[in-house]
Amino acid sequence: EDKVVQSPLSLVVHEGDTVTLNCSYEVTNFRSLLWYKQEKKAPTFLFMLTSSGIEKKSGRLSSILDKKELFSILNITATQTGDSAIYLCAVVSIQGAQKLVFGQGTRLTINP
Amino acid sequence: DTEVTQTPKHLVMGMTNKKSLKCEQHMGHRAMYWYKQKAKKPPELMFVYSYEKLSINESVPSRFSPECPNSSLLNLHLHALQPEDSALYLCASSPFDGRGNSYTFGSGTRLTVV
Question: What is the pLDDT of residue A41?
Answer without folding.
Answer: 80
